[in-house]
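Subject: Phage portal protein

B.,
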Amino acid sequence: MKFFDYLFHGKKLQVIDSYFKMLNGYSPTFTSFNGGVYEMDLTRVAINSFATHCSKLKPEIEGSALKHLERVLQYKPNYFMDTTKFIKRLATILAVEHTAFIVPIEDETGNLCGFYPLRAQRCEVVEAAGRVYLRYLFASGEYGAIEFEKVGIMTDFEYSDDLFGEDNSTLKPTMQLIHTQNEGIINAVKNSANIRFLAKVANLLKPEDIKAERERFTEENLSADNKSGMIIYDNKFSDLKQVESKPYTPNALQMQQIQDNVCTHFGTNMDILQNKFNEETWNAYYEGKIEPFAIQLSLVMSNMAFSQRELAHGNAITFSANRLQYASNATKLQVSTQLFDRALLNRNGVMDIWNMPHVEDGEKYYIRKEYTEVSQLGKNEEKQQIIIQQMPQPGQQAAGTEPGEEPAPDDKGQKEGVTDADQTGQGV
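Prediction pasted inline below.
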């Protein structure tokens, strides 16, 4: 199966030569950044950490339209990727280039059957025959085009362009600092490992004689053949000193500044990158980074999949996550007990909080019976007063009986053998 045929089903690219002009005068064009943001270890870890946490989002379809796509989204959105790879790929492209594209996959009849995340070297919004298209230039040099209303565009750092996000050029100084520091560490380690002795030549020698004398001294005294452990030198050297090899440690303040710059740019922190975060740190990271991505992805894919009429009837694609996954056991227990007996969570919902498998009949909801609706509080009190007034007191005639006639026992009394005297404490 050819990749372009899978995406575009062999559709021929029309001749498109008219730019679609926006109101601000920009010709909307997206070009990927070649600054190597993904090539440094620290920035790659920050991007991969964000994409990994995003890949745990669960896609769900609300409403009845395209309900058959829910299993497709939850397991395999396209022929090449499962759901985690799809979301992780999309999040990675967005974090690296601040612009990511989602292309709908259609079957032979033109019906939507999947989605594909796309990274293009260059994208242009163009117009042909009165319709707006998004034209792609791939790394292979091939072009592809799709109707603009069908494609999904996710952006970040939007300013100069109405359709695409900015590049990562603002991170370039930090990237240069990382590169310079890495080179300094490597060179310092090499130098400290190579130079072990300093020798002062007593006589004037030619450069070639100095080189030959250095090689001779090293071979006789510093090689493995010297088993005595002694170094002996003649009067050619007036002074010989051993150089102590000290480990090179990078500047802590510089390292901290670089880490802060990278974490600030990608909206993360070192506890997230090193998987040392606690409940509060994770909630802050989710609110600031994961949830905005999930909301934008939900809106983009909902607008791709559904018409305006279907959206108006409540159809939508949503991406959610178990926010209590990293909560403490005390928090999980409190949330489980407080929400379960109020019918806000079912048994399977509680199982999800504790990362346990679902159980049979786990979709049923339970509620404590002493709760009542606020508007029914007065009515319940009136009913209780009426019941109390109708209950016969000890020594009084029960309602509906003749004087001297014993009231008929109720069903409960008959079944359990309990008399009125027993209930009032006056029985034998």
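The chain is about 40% helix and 15% strand.

T.
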